[in-house]
Amino acid sequence: MEGKKIKIGLFDSGIGGFSILREIMGQAPGPEYYYFADREYAPYGNLSDKDIVQRSRLIVQYLKDSHCDLVLFACNTATNMSIELLRGEFDLPLIGVEPYINIVNQVADVGQKWGVLLTHASFRSEKFNTLKSMKDPNGQVQVFTSSNLASLVEEFWHGGDQDDWLPRVHQELEELRESQVTHLILGCTHYPLIQEVIENYLSIKTICPAAQVASHALSRLGIEISRGQDLPAFFYSEALGGEWKKLAGKNLWPKIKLE
Ligand code: DGL
């Protein structure tokens, strides 16, 4: 008897969660992926706690109604603000994403200067602050926030490569550049999508948890990792017409020009 196809739902304020979608589709081409981009309410990082919870609740319900077997919060901000609460409300596995702060305990100190970059909402959340004090009790990791970086990533995806885009990204990274951080933990799923831009401008290494999050979600569903061909996912955004659209896996992210 042929088994039913597993459906995995993912959501983010916009296309940031593609950094996780790309990874999970690469690790397991078998399931169907349903990706909800909440563009009308982006950026989440500048919303109130209450609004983030409310949006997350509605989207989880929507993905559940779309018969998803698991919902992956492909957004640090939504994870920080709402996942614990919503786990108590839904009888569906909810998997989140968090910055990989524990790396400071795993890499021998050879002069690294660590930073973590995240949204304002994540910065004030109890979940992030608990994680930070548990994994970094000695305060080795300096925290940076950004108001506009996620929106700039969004702008690139939707508007293309305008002349002033790169200078505006650089401006957003100025504080980090002055701090002379050598290793930056990315605490928002939008940032890995411009990983090269960040690394080149700051001459640093970035750390992104997408691979671990993807394999965690797959193991929760008992799916074995089997790299294979890139199949289409289904994409939904109210701002783009409010219906599921097929999206080809290999076209998930346009190439960024660095000059
Ligand atoms: N990509 C999201 C995150 O991981 C949200 C960014 C935003 O909308 O502010 O935090």
Task: Give a nutshell description of this structure.
The protein has 259 residues and is α/β, with parallel strands linked by helices.
Question: What structural keywords apply?
Answer:
single chain, 259 residues, alpha/beta, six-stranded mixed beta sheet, 10 helices, binds D-glutamic acid
What does it look like?
By secondary structure, the protein is of the alpha/beta class. The protein contains ten helices and ten strands. The strands form two sheets. A six-stranded mixed β-sheet has the order 4-3-1-2-9-10. A hairpin with a 7-residue loop joins strand 9 and strand 10 (245-247). Helix 1 packs across helix 10 and helix 2 crosses helix 3 (76-87). The protein is globular, with a radius of gyration of 18 Å. The N and C termini lie far apart (54 Å). D-glutamic acid (DGL) binds at residues 12-13, 16, 42-45, 75-77, 119, 122, 150, 188-190.
Choose one word for the global shape: globular
- Whole-angstrom Rg: 18 Å
Bound compounds, each kind once, are: D-glutamic acid
Task: For the record, give the distance between the C-alpha atoms at the N and C termini, rounded to a whole number.
Answer: 54 Å
Q: Topology of this structure?
A:
Blueprint: E1 7-12, H1 18-27, E2 32-37, H2 49-65, E3 70-73, H3 76-87, E4 94-95, E5 114-118, H4 120-124, H5 126-135, E6 141-145, H6 149-159, H7 165-172, H8 174-179, E7 183-186, H9 195-202, E8 205-207, H10 210-220, E9 233-237, E10 245-247
Parallel strand pairs: 1-2, 1-3, 2-9, 3-4, 5-6, 5-7, 7-8
Antiparallel strand pairs: 9-10
Helix pairs in contact: 1-10, 2-3
The chain binds D-glutamic acid (DGL).
D-glutamic acid (DGL) binds at residues 12-13, 16, 42-45, 75-77, 119, 122, 150, 188-190.
